[in-house]
Amino acid sequence: MTEDGRKDTKRAQRVAAATRTKQPLTVGSGVKFLGLRTIKAAELKGLGIDESYQRAEIKDHVNQIISALERGGQVIDPITLAQRKDGSLWIVDGQQRYWAHWHLSRELQAIIYEVDGIDSERRMFSVLNAHRRPHAGVRIRAWVGPGGDLIRWLHESPESPIRGEVSFTGSGRYSAVTILRGLNAVLGGYISAGGNAEDMLRTLDVLVRDVSPAISRKAAQFYVLGLKQIFGQPGTALALPSVSIGLVCHEHWKDGWKIDNVSKRAVATLSRVRWERYAPTSGSQWIDTLKALVLKQWPLQRRRNETSRPEEE
């Protein structure tokens, strides 16, 4: 190998190493090591990429690896594949390395694990990417637990008012991070603005189990319907207002979880609010101000007794 080739091999290794963890793979039961094998160029098109937890192709990373390979370099680090029960192979880690080899029609090395289901695949993805810190939306989409299930349900279910509109890549009308923070507010009355995704997801896991998955889905359904009505088409659900609306939903619904629509009067008024006037920055110090604004338009009613919920406005 030429000196340029050796330099490019090291460069390709650095790029590849930047996309994976150095930690051993420890994911508990449901995963069995099968071995290391060479994936021929003709086999590359048969490898699956599950978009329910995987990210998209990152072209800058792929192009760097392609450039190094074309100059005689090599990517020594193998990709990680999951073999499902039907024998199909799915990329868990190393997608950018895969795309570089696919574009050049070159074989590559792969470590293969047998998995017992999609949850095991998601756990593998989370472990292998734990130290790379991918975008929070990617971690949310791959999360194994009732909190992750609830957010994926909002994105995928025909019953969801925002089906297909949750963004796991950082842009879009309904950011997965905003929805996560909002659901913690709705189900637990928690302000989690600024928290890391894993901590917020663990909190949501506990809340969904405590409230029950069925009630959590109903609360989430009515909450995001309110967001959709308030922020309109093609508006974007703003982070701090979404949390404040979630906190007020919690106050209205928490007693017995008798859930119904956000007040029509509140929706009509809040849809006209210029939120930046009340929260000029993204700091959580504005949450109380925004919550008071929402409560003013959708006030809590006096209850005849401790268990009954008032009629909607």
Description:
The protein has 313 residues and is of the alpha/beta class. It has two domains: 3-128, Conserved hypothetical protein from pyrococcus furiosus pfu- 392566-001, ParB domain, CATH 3.90.1530.10; 136-297, no CATH class. It has helices at residues 3-17, 59-70, 95-104, 118-128, 136-142, 146-156, 176-188, 197-211, 213-231, 239-253, 264-270, 275-278, 287-297; strands spanning 31-39, 79-83, 89-93, 108-115, 166-167, 174-175. A four-stranded mixed beta sheet has the order 1-4-2-3. A two-stranded parallel sheet has the order 5-6. A hairpin with a 5-residue loop joins β2 (79-83) and β3 (89-93). α1 (3-17) runs antiparallel to α2, α2 crosses α3 (95-104) and α6 (146-156) crosses α9. The protein is elongated and about 70 Å long. The termini are far apart. Residues 15-24 and 303-313 have low confidence and may be disordered.
Considering the chains and any ligands shown, give keywords for the structure.
313 residues; Conserved hypothetical protein from pyrococcus furiosus pfu- 392566-001, ParB domain; four-stranded mixed β-sheet; two-stranded parallel sheet; 13 helices; disordered C terminus
Radius of gyration: 23 Å
In whole angstroms, the N-to-C terminal distance is 77 Å
| Count of DSSP-assigned helices | 13
Compute the number of structural domains: 2
> What is the string of helix and strand elements?
HEHEEHEHHHEEHHHHHHH
Average pLDDT works out at 82
As a percent range, the share of helical residues equals 40-55%
Strand line-up across the major sheet: 1-4-2-3
Oligomer: single chain
Query: Strand pairing plus helix content: what structural class?
Result: alpha/beta
